[in-house]
Write a structure and sequence with these properties.
10 helices; RuvA_C_sf; alpha+beta; 225 residues; OB fold (Dihydrolipoamide Acetyltransferase, E2P); 47% helix
Length: 225
Amino acid sequence: MIGKLSGRIDYRGDDHVLIDVKGVGYLVYCSERTLAALPGPGEVVALYTDLLVREDLLQLFGFPTLLEKEWHRLLMSVQGIGAKASLAILGTLGAEGVNRAIALGDWNAVKAAKGIGPKTAQRVVNELKDKAPALMALGGMLGIAPAPVADADQDAVIEPVEAAPKSASAPAGAAAQSEALSALSNLGYSPGEAASAVAQAAGEAPEADTAGLIRAALKLLAPKG
């Protein structure tokens, strides 16, 4: 299975990009958000990929981070969500936006994606609310973009995917949310409760560090009255 591609962009279409890897062109479908962030033709790029295999079809889908790739796979586990719908959701919300929408039960945010109706959006939230926290806890480790090879013509350009280690280059917000979620889970809060509180706290204070998110989430989880 092709888990990562690194090469030069040959051309860009409305929903895909052609990546030249040592003379072999790989057609990779991406969300609008991902396509907009890619460099122009002739530039080196690296994407994590997921290969869809059907009896009469082989399609590669590309993602800027492992976190987004894993969300794609999780979204496609929901009845009625295929690759196109998953890319529409990720293109509208991004991986962190999907994190937040699922944690807060905000199906209206999911419904904002093109082609996603209210019933499908509600199904996404309901079916993933218990599965999402485990993925959210890995956000800091998986939210790192792959580095393109220095020379796109060298041999090691097609690689299997491995979980990226924690790094100082990981987005601070994603890492802080992951650590806060883990801490709340260790305190005995259910994954759903912890994820919802951390997502709300992060939305109110995007620049908060881990300790700040934990304090804010604990206030949200404290009994009212």
